[in-house]
Amino acid sequence: MTDVHPSRTLGDAPRADDGYYGPDSVSWRVFSDPGSMLGAKNAVFLQMLEPGMMTHFERVSLTTEGPEAMAARFDRTSAYLRDAVFADKAHADAAAAHVDRLHERATWTDPETGEVVTAKQPTWQRWTWWTYIWSAVRGYQEFGPGLSVADSDRVVVESRQGAQMLHVPGPYFDTFAELDAYIREELNSKALTIFAALAGHSLRHPDVKGPIAKWATRRVLNGVLSLLPEAALYFYALEDRSAKELAKGARFTKWVAKLARKNQTAEDLIAQAIGDSIAKPYQKVRVRKG
Predict the structure, then answer these.
(1) For the segment 143-177, what is each residue's pLDDT rounded down to a tens digit?
(2) Which residue range is the domain that position 63 belongs to?
(3) Can you name one GO molecular function term for this protein (predicted)?
(4) Is the separation of the CB atoms in 165 and 92 below 8 Å?
(5) What's the gap between Cα 170 and its chain centre?
């Protein structure tokens, strides 16, 4: 493997180890690839189908945020997910502790019951985490180099580490097939609030200028949406997108992911992800003296 320990320049504790996953994990290969990153965008559409969680988000913050603030929020979330996998243990722990505190503070009071509702609801936590893992794996399977059944299962088992760091309750999964069955079964109890419907509409119709950019954006969105289980497509009234159109989008998105790799090897992509976590850590760690 290439050298994946670039020097740290940010007045922050130096990288001390290979983190909780490490070079022998499948997760390093999967989560450093553009295919999984594109696939992970699909998770947002699944997560918005949890009505209680979306009501919570509506109450605590999102309705007061403009597009730039929301984009910054998504960038921070992406940085956390990167560091959970690629940062050393100290930085991964610091990042998880910070996110956990944010979830603790994200509260609102139900006017009808007087209950103080926090973001740390077991059902929401499980749905949020595992839709992300499912979507990232599906993205790598469809837009990346491909993944064997055994390696798909390994990613799911390795992802228990990230779940535990965020106090996501079990039960956990042993195989991707079990995770896939969970996602599809849970869709039977999901719903789309008006807030989520409007948010989903905005995500599917971004403010893109120019006919070529609009065409390319729609193709990539179709590729991302092609990963959704059929039941989820109906929530967003996407039956107007034919299977043929979604398939074209998937092929185009796979091509975009290939371009994003820039002929880099998996080792190059891993080194880049580690370098990014070192250069711009989600949460800095104090240098220990003595």
Answers:
(1) 999 999 999 999 999 999 999 999 999 999 999 99
(2) 26-279
(3) oxidoreductase activity
(4) yes
(5) 19
